[in-house]
Amino acid sequence: xxAAVMRxxxxxxxxxxxxxAVSAHDLGSAALLSxxxxxNGKEPPPHLKVGQAFLASxxxxxxxxxxxxxxxxxxxEKLFTVDKDDKLVPQLAKSAVRSSADPKLWTITLExxxxxxxxxPVTAADxxxxxxxxxxxxxxxxxxxxxxxxxxxxxxxxxxxxxxxTPVMQSVLAEWFFVVYKTLPAGCDTVGTYCAARVFTGxxxxxKLDKDELVATANVYYPKYSPCSRAPLVIKKYASGGDxxxxxxxxxxxxxxxxxxxxxxxxxxxxxxxxxxxxVGYQYMMFFNTKKPHLSDxxxxxxxxxxxxxxxxxxxxxxxxxxASVIDEAVATGPFPAFSPWGAPSVHPRLTTNTAQAAQLLxxxxxxxxxxxxxxxxxxxxxxxxxxxxRSDLVTxxxxxxxxxxxxxxxxxxxxxxxxxxxxxxxxxxDEGSCAQAxxxxxxxxxxxxxxxxxxxxxxxxxxxxxxxxxxxxxxAQNFAQHNSANIDNALDTLKSAEGAVRAEAAKTxxxxxxxxxxxTFLTSPTWHIGVHGRMESYEPWGSDYYVIKSxxxxxxxxxxxxxxxxxxLSSLNLSxxxxxKTLGEWPPSCLRWFSPSxx
Length: 600
Hints:
The chain is an alpha+beta fold. It has 4 domains: about 5-40 and about 560-590, no CATH class; about 45-55 and about 200-280 and about 525-560, Periplasmic binding protein-like II (D-Maltodextrin-Binding Protein, domain 2); about 75-180, Dipeptide-binding Protein, Domain 1 (Dipeptide-binding Protein, domain 1), CATH 3.90.76; about 280-525, Dipeptide-binding Protein, Domain 3 (Dipeptide-binding Protein, domain 3). About 30% of the residues lie in helices and about 20% in strands. The chain has 16 helices and 23 strands. The strands form 6 sheets. A 7-stranded mixed β-sheet has the order 10-11-12-1-13-23-14, with helices on one face. Strands 20-19-21-15-22 form a 5-stranded mixed β-sheet. A 4-stranded antiparallel β-sheet has the order 4-5-7-6. It is globular. The two termini are about 30 Å apart.
């Protein structure tokens, strides 16, 4: 038998198996597509290995920040999203139209021809079920519009009725928790755990997920999929950015994220590794626990905010040799990056350092300086500063802030909390309601404050009265300061439904109240760093760590399967296949392209 005939025979057997798998909605079809590559004499691309300091704890978008992680991992998608230019664009949706008769009612039309990773089409009923569940289970999903009622009106159309009117529904549906998914008939028993019966629409489908590693294969139903164009994926969680750097040096991963600033210059000396730096939409901030007696005084909070040398923090978290202008421009103006219209320096001046004014405020509050220590009624002014380690810049900042506070006589202890249970501590008895004063004094926090391009979600979630604390929650976005303010609440109420210039003015008012009342202070707008090996050299980072795994990963180790066009009549083939549950038009183009239009 000639090589050409053997090759064609192998191809036919592969495609026959593939079509059988597709007709049964079998995810194993991804593996069979790899066999098609092998029949062409081309090995499937090796796994793309990514190292980072965070990983989804489950595949349930209805809990915690899992939706964010699933989008980052290339598994989840939303109805709308933000592109590399920070523009709001449709993703699974085609349009969102507000009712002219009812400002709380919207009609969403889905983009046709989209599929979940099991091959089933995305329907309005699926979207309504998944987003409705998330809105019910995840308090973050109620920050912008309150309770939302989703109802499918036909296969590709659904309505959304909201408790709170919003003029920016596209932005709301682009928020990180509103990931679209489907639960298969096998069902999922427990909220917040991994469940294989939960499927998504992103370019990758999860094959395995545990606490330290995610393994995924290409979603063969993703638009413009072709065999071997997307390598199988492994995302490995490391304890810190420093550990990711070490893994890059050893060649254990092809891409590394969450790297400390010192790694940027360091990795450029490593063979076949390139470091890349890019501005991100995150803000570094510090929350004051206003339920602690010494921090309930606004003058103490103002003083501590004035002590912080933000330029020094910026310098320490940028690579050596970074331009002075970049260092200066990273100093925060408030909750939003200075490069955004919501944080522009022309509207909001950069936050300043003034230790002399800070000393005056502390003296006025009764915390006087004696022998280098500030005390009141014989008790030292002591601060418990808490941070977590998977944001490497926070690790760098914590000892510097400690030094800056100690220079004005404040006693500071620093500690790591990588569990996210920031309100746990002593004394704290949940059943006796005595947790208000538990936990941290100051909490360092990193947050993407404009993940969908609009300021409302961040401000409502972190500064609305009574929006926290949830003592039992881990890594929950909430009012960490436990600060209740009528001024902030009134401005937030205006912001929820305001449009145009009124919306901008309402956001400005909230900003000003936060700066004046100091439930939190803002530090810097960071530059982040990644490392890539040769096969990923052309990878372009954007979207902070929200869009790490993209549909168009420029992986030089991946390729296509350039198979010759074949003219086949399926009815003439004696193949033992189950009767297909799909029409030919529903089969993946990646296999259909091997058959002539006359095939049936």
